[in-house]
Amino acid sequence: MAKVLVTGGAGYIGSHTVQKLLLSGHEVVVVDNLSTGFKEAVPDGTDFRHGDVRDSDFLSQILTKSGIEVVINFAAKLNVAESIQKPTEYYDNNVGGTLSLLKACDTAGVNKIIFSSTAAVYGDSCADGAISEETQTGPINPYGWSKLFSEQLINDAAKASDLKYVVFRYFNVAGAAEDGSNGQRTANAYHLVHLASQAGTGKRQELKIFGTDYPTPDGTCIRDYIHVEDLADIHVLGAEHLLRGADSATLNCGYGQGYSVRQVISSALEVADTKFAVAEDVRRPGDPASLVADSSKMQALLGWRPLRNDIRTICRTALAWEKKLTSQIT
Ligand code: UFG
C-alpha cells in the first residue's frame, strides 16, 4: 500500500480515481484549487489540501511531509474550444503546472509520476484505423499542444534523473460511477455524453450535431468513449506498476471501438426519460474526424481488461447521475 498524491482529485476523472485508490488500500492526499473541481466529489477518507499545482513550494512541502511515493497529476484545463480562445491560459495551467510538479518532485525526491494526457496529441493524423502510441503526433488545438509539451517535459526530466512515469493518453472519457455515488458535475456541460444526459432529463430541449460532412460512414465524428470507472482502474494499475519499480511508458486508454456522434445520440435517446430534439449544425473548430485507440500496449503492460465497454452503459450511468444531481437541486 502506498501514499499517493492526486492533483486535481476534486475533478471528474480525479475523484473517481481517488475512490478506486482508496478501495485498493492506498492512502491519498488530494491537491485541488477547486477552479473546476468540487470539494464534495472528493471521497471521504482523503486528506484534502486546497491549493494550486503551479505553486511548486506548496507541492514540495506536501510531498515531503506526507511521505508521498507516487503522484497522479490530473490538474489541468481540458476544454478544446476554450483552449483555442484562451491559449495562454492553457499553456500557463497545463505546461506551467507540469513544470511546477516536476520541480516539486525533484526537490522532494519523489520519482514516480502518472500523467494525464490526451488523444488530442494525435490531432487529425489518423482518419482510418486505430491509433497506436507510435502514430505520428500533431495536435490541432492548444489543448493538445499543452499536453504534448508537458509529455516532452516529463520525458526530458526522466532522461536526466531517476524519474519514472506513465503517461496515459485518454480518448473520450464519459459515464458515471455505477453505484451512483459520483459523476460529472461541471456547471457548463461541454462533452457530448454529458450534454446528451442533460437532454435526457429534460434539462436541455435540444442537442446539436456539430458537423455532418466528415469523411466517416454517417458524416459525423467518431470517438472512442471509455467509461470513467474503467479509466480510474487503469490509474490504480499504473501507480502499482511504477511502485513495483517498472519502467516508464506512454499508453493509450480507450476500448478500440469507435462510435459516431449519431450513434451516441441514438444510445442516449434509448435510455432517456425525456425524448429530446436533435439538430444538425456546422462543424466545431478543432475537431478531428476520428479518434479510436489501439490500447493493446496498455492492456498487455498493465493486465487491464475493460469491464464497462458498452456505449449504453456509459449513457445509462451518465443519465442516472444527472437525474440524481437534478433531484438534489430541486
Ligand atoms: N459534439 C456534438 N454536439 C455537442 C457536443 C459534441 O456534435 O453538443 C461532437 C463533437 O463535435 C465531437 C464529439 O461530439 O465530434 C465529441 O465531442 P466532445 O466534446 O464530447 O469530446 P472531444 O472529442 O472534443 O474531446 C474529448 C476531450 C478531450 C480529448 C478528446 C480525445 O474533451 O480532452 O476527447 O478524444 F482530447
Description:
By secondary structure, the chain is of the alpha/beta class. The protein has 2 domains: 3-174 and 226-253, NAD(P)-binding Rossmann-like Domain (Rossmann fold), CATH 3.40.50; 192-223 and 256-329, UDP-galactose 4-epimerase, domain 1, CATH 3.90.25.10. Helices cover 39% and strands 18% of the residues. The chain has helices spanning 12-23, 56-65, 80-85, 87-108, 142-159, 192-200, 228-243, 261-271, 296-302, 311-329, and strands at 3-7, 27-32, 47-50, 70-73, 112-118, 164-170, 172-174, 206-210, 222-223, 225-227, 249-253, 259-260, 277-281, 290-291. The chain has a 7-stranded parallel beta sheet with strand order 3-2-1-4-5-6-11, sandwiched between helices. The chain has a 3-stranded mixed beta sheet with strand order 12-9-14. α2 (56-65) runs parallel beside α4 (87-108), α4 runs parallel beside α5 (142-159) and α6 runs parallel beside α8 (261-271). The radius of gyration is 19 Å and the shape is globular. The relative contact order is 0.15. The protein binds uridine-5'-diphosphate-4-deoxy-4-fluoro-alpha-D-galactose (UFG). Uridine-5'-diphosphate-4-deoxy-4-fluoro-alpha-D-galactose binds next to α6 and β8.
Give the helices and strands, then pairings:
Blueprint: E1 3-7, H1 12-23, E2 27-32, E3 47-50, H2 56-65, E4 70-73, H3 80-85, H4 87-108, E5 112-118, H5 142-159, E6 164-170, E7 172-174, H6 192-200, E8 206-210, E9 222-223, E10 225-227, H7 228-243, E11 249-253, E12 259-260, H8 261-271, E13 277-281, E14 290-291, H9 296-302, H10 311-329
Parallel strand pairs: 1-2, 1-4, 2-3, 4-5, 5-6, 6-11, 7-10, 8-13, 9-14
Antiparallel strand pairs: 9-12
Bound molecules: uridine-5'-diphosphate-4-deoxy-4-fluoro-alpha-D-galactose.
